[in-house]
Amino acid sequence: MSVTRVNLEAYCGVSDEVAKQVKKYLLGDFADESRFERKNSDSSDGSETQFCKTTERKENVEEWDDWGDKQDAENTTESDESMRNWLFRCDLKTYSDAEYLLVTWESRFVLLRKPPDENQYKIVCKQYIEGDPVGNEITASCIFGLSNVRHIELLDSIIIALGTLDGHVYFFTEQGTMLYYDRFSIFEPVNSLQFDVVKTGQTFLVVFTKGFFMVNPISLKSVLYQCKVLIAKGEKTVKQISESIELQSELLAPDIKGNIIHVVFTGLQKPSTFEQYVSASYDSFYAKVEKPSLPLYSTFMVTTEKEFAVFVWHDREEQEKLLDDVIKYGKSLVPSFGIRKFFGISTEPTRVASHMRSAVHAPTRSLILETRIAQTVSRSPDCNYVAVTDRLARVIIIDVINRQVVLIFKGYRDASVSWVSSTQDDRFAQFLTIFAPRRSLLEVWTVLGNVRVCAQHVPSSECNVVSGGENKMLCGRCHMHTDYNSFFIDEKGEFHRIVMPFHLALTSRARQDQHDHLRLKELEQQNVGTDDWFKTFSDLRMTTSRKITFQNALHGLSTAEEAHNFVARIKSLPNAGSLADLPNVAEKSIGFYARIVAESKAAIGEYEKKSAYELDSIVERILECHMERFGERSDAVNDSLKVGEWLKHVDLSHEDIDVLSEHWSEHRRLLLANLIFAPLLGSFQIDEYYDTVLEKLPVNRLNIVKLFYLKLNKSTNKIDWRIFNRIVELFVNLEKSETGVLKSVDRMAMDSKNVTLGILLLAVCWCARKQMRQLRNQDKDSEDNIDESEHREEDNKGNEEKNKTFEEWDAVSPEVEHLDSTMMCLHCVALAQSLIVEDPCDVRISDVAQRIDSYIRENVAKWVVNESIETEVLEKLFPRDPTEVLAEEGDEEDRRNKMIVDFPEDKETIVERMYQMIPRVFEHDLVVAGEYFNNRLFLYSGEKDEM
Amino acid sequence: MEENTVFEINDFTIVTEMEHFGAAFEGIIQKYEFAGRRPCLADDIKYRMVVTDTNVISIGENKLRIDLMQPVPLNPEHALPQTAPEVTDDETEDSYFAPFTVAEEIANTKHGFECTDSFVLKFGIRECIIVSPNDPTCRLTDENQVNTVMGNIRTVMHSCRCEVPVFCYIKDESLDMIAGYASDGNSSYKFSSVVLRNINNRHCTMHDLLNMFKENLGTTISAFHEEVRMSSRFTHIVPLKQNDYLRNHTVDSFGVLATGPSTSLPFDTLEVAATWRFFRENSLTENRGHSDFDINYANHWSVKIRSTKGSLFGVFDEILGVYKEETRKAIRSDLNCATIMGKHYTQKDLPNAFQKLTVNSASEVKIGKHGEVGKPADEDGTNGPMSPVLMRSWVEYIFNNQGEHEVLSHELNLLNAASMSGEQYSEEDLVNNVKLDTLFNYQDPKMANSFLAPYKCAKKRTTTWRLSVALANARVFLKDQPRAEPQLWIEFLLALRKKYEKMETVEYVNNGIDHLQCAFSQKMQMLQMCIDARQKRHKMFDSAHSASNTSDEFFDANDSFNADTTLEPNNEGRLKLAGMNLVGNPSEPMYIPITQDSCPLTDEMIDARNEHLFSLDEEERVNLQMELVKSDMQSFKAANPDSVFADFLRWHSPKDYDEATDSISERMLIPNNVWIRSWEAAQPIPVASQARIFNDTKIAEEIFELFNAATLDQVREWMKPSIFAATLERLTEIQSSYGVSEEKQKQNVKIAKVLASATMNKSASEYDDVARYCSQVEMIHNMKVHLIQLFQNAKEKMHPPHPSESDVQAAIKQLVNIAVHNLWEDSEEEEPELIVKPQDPIGRALASMGKLNELTEQQLIKGHRKEYIFIWDFKRPSTTTLPMSHRMYADLRQDKHSLYFAVGNDCNFSNASFL
Q1: Which residues lie in Polar residues bias regions (chain A) (predicted)?
Q2: Number of domains, chain A
Q3: pLDDT (tens digit per residue) in B895-904
Q4: Do A657 and A750 fall into the same domain?
């Protein structure tokens, strides 16, 4: 059974030196064995007075024997450890989260303190009670803070209260100065001393076997102050003070049969009218509730040797209600004369010793009819529960509000129980820690949910759990929240704070969203993929939060490999099942991504010199030139989509993603395009690439084309003939699967403002068309061709005369003719554009197409104007008689070969190149080009309307 | 990830007694598989909580019963939802959490007063485990015991994560004091109750209860809190102004079996439970001085009409009750009726019946002495307790003597007046009374003169029938006169005797005794036949005596006596010519003799005779059986002196003589057979001289003797079949007054068949069944009739629009159903309800009926029963916890105040700032 380990936070320890000192002091120089033996015989007496002591110090005594035997070996480390161990098995009292530690032995005590910035305890004081060491043997101790006179929230000093065998209670300061003592009994030892603070009140209890004193805290505070002042001033001795000042207290004798073992102050309770009626109903059907006002009770849970648990409700005295005001309003306690007298602080020797007081009967509200006997008790931080261990190896939780047992843990013999609290904002959760020494097991449980939130085995049974002690102050405000801590003392005597994260309290399903909410916050701060992350992730309770977290984590990943590993790890988690198909889907998608990326590596050494499509040499040269120019751009993004983003946005199981919708940013679109078209540049076989990547993409063809255009337009990739050929092949594939793709590419080319891009695209389209036609010719019979040509005739009315010159059966499509002219013209356009530096590309090709000649001349003119070119240069560039150049009409091919296709730096050279290329702007070439453009524009304008 | 494998400590030891109890309880929870989430029930299906299983656990010496209450859909089509989907560690279910069912149920405001299950009403819970003492000696009486037991239960619930609430009865189970608990480990609900005779007056109104409710949740009223949702129900019981019904006696009502209520009207109070559903705090106010809960503006009413009387009886119950073993036997059974009458009746010195038996001839019977006219009638009648005149005229009425009706009518008026006296009746009461009278005593003119089934009882319109009805009526009408019934019987006997003497018709006889009628009826028929026989005999004597000229001086010849005999009276006892001549002496004509009639036999007599015959040996039996044949032979011989056996056969048994062959049948030729022997032994004696076979005098006297000596019980027993038949017939008659459904008709016929079988077999249990049925149906009829009248009165008083007839009928039907349910049906079945909107016509009619408009504010505040449900969402114990619903149900009755609280608590968190 896998459970969370208990979160132990190293707190502090006791150095050997300190331990030795403490031991030495406590045992005294005269540590002879006879006294220890006496103690042994005392504790095994079983007499009533020893009863309680036995339970408290049982283990202590066992250890003592050990130690006594090995007294000689005390200098070895081993004995030091056992000694230290022994130390913490003594009657320990803690205060303020174990900042102070009180160790008592016989009539001696030592106070240890751990300063906040250190991790070792230091001895604050070593002190003993003077007088008869037997009668003054300390049987009970208590440590608490005394609030400041002026400001009750400030700590004035630490008070140590010690009860002795002869019924005295002594009060010391932390420095070991005795302030006051009073005798509460002349024949009984003090069973226990308790200073209890609950949210509505506080009380100081002196417990005996048949009853207990409730010492009025205000009176106690006044007394202690007086003593401090008087002793500091040296006006009176402790003895004088103690004999003159009276401590206000009340002896309560509850209605019980057995001797008291424990008394737990469970707070003040004001029953509601309804509750009054309920208890009246228990009495009799004819009972009546007449009292109009509701009484306020101090409630106690008392365990005795005969009764398992008795609930004592004591009507609060009038003066105690004053305390409510103190606590409620934070009033400083400056006792007026009247009140002083009332509290018996008057200096007149009217003092009545506490042991002279007559007992007040305290009624029992109810009792639990169980045949157990309590061993130890521990009240929960919110006062609603008391954990009790008994001698039958049980840990029992009692609901003190309803006075019922609510849980029984079986099989925890000699367990130590303690409470731990945890807060989240203003919510407060409490946990019960149980240390079962027989099983060396430390467990933490929620209270009513009966959920073991963490557990772990500890190496040794020589450990213990002590509560940290509250930061409680006499007459201090107690509504300030303090965490309630417990400390685990390991076998080496090291203190470990038991830290309970709040989310562990959220165990029930109704709370799981809250639990996950807390955990998710933690997850945000952790790096995805770390062990912590996986640990927290597997702790999530709700499926939805797991799913979302999983997805978010995926989205943060950058490489496919990382993603693969991540998913594999998720799948190995025990609760991965709740993610259902999600990891598989993700894995598939990652695989797809990985494939794309893997195939995108550029092929090396596979440079193709020429186009595979029998292009005109001039076209080839122009294209080559432009490809080179295309690769020179530097303003574009070359990153591609990361796997996380890919998973975030592209769901392969999706029907269709509208990548051009507003949800897709331009940037992301580009990244996607970069990713999916990366294989074009690689060595992936185009057919396979098309089938495995583009076909499977949930993006329709048209959008693919648009993405492609986007990629070309926005990203820099060197294009060489190999890539060019691959692009053509790709388009052939696209056109095959959906006719009209090429048309749209054409249009995009025409709409492009980048002439180079336009030239490339147009060339690609031209090649693709040609390829398509070849394929068609191979595949289809002549009838199809006739249909095709008819269709084409309708479309291209302007070309009728031209078409007549071809043979009828040979299907001619003008879009695959005259590429050379087109290219040359566009090249000139590009050249012309490069003449003008500022905004060279603000016109679309289609705009230019109709007036290439004028556009070129315009640009030349602009250049001339802008750069104020001299006339003679012009004369030189543009000969008056173009016929000179045109003279050699016969050898067109030759002329073309002579043309230099490049983008020269010098603008004059540019003009020369242009002139060289299209000397006769109204001659054949230009006409054909214009016709071509007109034709195309006409076509597209018609289609545009359709769209 | 590092695996931290630490097994939980599993210790199954059981040490203390309480742990024993806990283990046993845990076993039960495991058995029912109650761990984990429970299914939430659908709202739109109606459920009824049913104890589905019971276990007994001992705790120390005591034993506790653990009942499992589960909801069962009223409509069996809606099967229970299966238990919540299995909760595994990696639940594939999405963010939907099965909620804590108890919390959902408590928050459900639909669990209002519509639910009749007590746990739904009290705590809003529809599934639970109930712990109650197994026997009354081991009740959980004090808080310690309850806390200890509940604590152990809580321990078990927490440790096995059982979310079904467990309730524990405290003290007497009937006190309904309950403690309970439910938890899902995260939030818990504590159920507690207050049951006191009276809670303080300060807390008896809604305002105060609301404060108490909030106070217990640890808060005061604040504007920032969500408002409390409330429902309330006030039950007011108002008397229906109505005097007791007084029966108005008329001649007609004497003729039929009485119906209607026996002591008082079925209903005298109207109970209206007015419900206000789901209103918000502050929308309605009720405090000690003021109440907004005006009954006329409630959401709806649940109306009941009740009787404050402990038991309701109809007349039929009264009539048929005497036949039930357990019911009253007011009059000593060992005395005959005459003795019962005591001083009110002195028997005349009648001649002993046996003296009369010695008289052989009619002439010796001194008829005239008793039949003398003009003698004072009361001389041999009764003189109390009822007016003898009434009795006598009633008896005359029984004998269907038309002339006496006026006297009866007059006497009845006197009787009515007597019963009226002493009480004040307003005009309205009288009108009401008359109305009720006509309604109750409905007579169906078309009522068929036939029975629903062939009962073995007196036929309708016979004297016996009327007598039985009259006796029953006497018992009912004159209930305060317990001697009326025997008085009537005695008067009847006197009249009967008188009529017998006068040879008047006392009973209708058709061709011999009708064996399909009851024993008493047969006796009456026998009596009539005796009278007939006597008359005939007298006539015969006359003729015989006149023929021999020895006239009987005592015999007063009756002039009117003119029998259509064909022959003059003669000595030979010849009746007429047979139309043939004798075989032995062909010249002589054969006469048919006057023969004796055979003795008519009632069932009882047949039985007795059979018994006698069986006791005889063969010879004697044959002789006895041949008695009539012998008499015939003697008569034949006297009439035909020369006749032979063959002649006798020709007359008496023509089959045995073949006229064509003149031969006697072989049967008769057997030598020495009984016929021949008898023939030979027979002397020629005419009938008039023969010993009488049908000794009518003897039989009649025997009957009279029997009647005279009869105790009242005997008389009642004789009447039993007829009374039952009459009751059942009357029942169908009165039912027809408002139309009888086919189903009812079938049921009637069925019960009639039961009665037929009962009359046949004299089966007491069947009679009881019939009696029960009759009294129930009559009671229902009475209720209906009463309600019809109430609604009619209300209609007259209220303003239009009046409720439609069908509405009224539906309301009446439902009200009767409720009453029937409360009277006779097991409490297992859910009580039907009549839900009425106060402002509907029917509601206003009811208001007018109970004068609900006139209720004062103080009356409203001090209703007979006030119930409230409070439901509030409030964060408890601190403001940072989830809001939870808390619920209180307060039930304040006159003599018992109960509060039931379901208070939620978030048990894991509290507000840190308070620590």
Answers
A1: 43-53
A2: 5
A3: 899 999 999 8
A4: yes
